[in-house]
Amino acid sequence: MKPSKVKFISQKLEKEFNKLDESDPIKKAIKRAIRDLETDAFFGIQIPKRIFPKQYIQKYNLNNLWKYDLPQAWRLIYTITRENEVEIVCAILNWFPHKNYERKFNYFF
């Protein structure tokens, strides 16, 4: 287990999260995901590099991506970085329904 600090990748994304109604099941699930990631940064499932969306690589220059399964087939996408030599940070990049996840990561069935 690797405890971490959890942040949103941008203020815009954090504002979108804060706009969600407190009774929204997705907001509740994201809060639970944040608690889980604070306890263990590696709680999610690592996404293979070969399917990273190019837009994520270009925009964030990342070398790892993780998904956390939310209820109702939603997915939360995050990356793990370091803020300094000691502190691990999980940066939330996005959350969306499974259909959008499949499209973004080019899963075709």
In a nutshell, what does this entry contain?
The chain is of the alpha+beta class and 109 residues long. It is built from 4 helices and 5 strands; from the N terminus they run βααβαβββα.
Can you give a write-up of this model?
- With 109 residues, the chain is of the alpha+beta class.
- It has one domain (5-104): RelE-like (YaeB-like fold, 2-Layer Sandwich), CATH 3.30.2310.20.
- It is 35% helix and 27% strand.
- It has 4 helices and 5 strands.
- The chain has helices at residues 11-19, 25-39, 54-60, 98-104; strands spanning 5-8, 45-46, 66-69, 74-82, 88-97.
- It is globular, with a radius of gyration of 14 Å.
- 17% of the residues are buried.
- The mean pLDDT is 93.
Question: What's the structural blueprint in terms of helices and strands?
Answer:
Elements: E1 5-8, H1 11-19, H2 25-39, E2 45-46, H3 54-60, E3 66-69, E4 74-82, E5 88-97, H4 98-104
Parallel strand pairs: 1-5
Antiparallel strand pairs: 2-3, 3-4, 4-5
CATH superfamily: RelE-like
Count the domains.
Answer: 1
Order of helices and strands: EHHEHEEEH
Radius of gyration: 14 Å
Report the principal-axis shape: globular
CATH class type: Alpha Beta
Bin the helical content: 25-40%
Q: Would you give the CATH topology?
A: YaeB-like fold
Overall mean pLDDT score? 93
Strand content: 25-35%
N/C terminus separation: 34 Å
Strand arrangement, major sheet = 1-5-4-3-2
pLDDT below 50 for ≥5 consecutive residues: which ranges? none
Count of alpha/pi helices: 4
Q: From the helix content, strand content and strand pairing, which structural class follows?
A: alpha+beta
Largest sheet: 5 strands, mixed
CATH architecture classification:
2-Layer Sandwich
Number of strands: 5
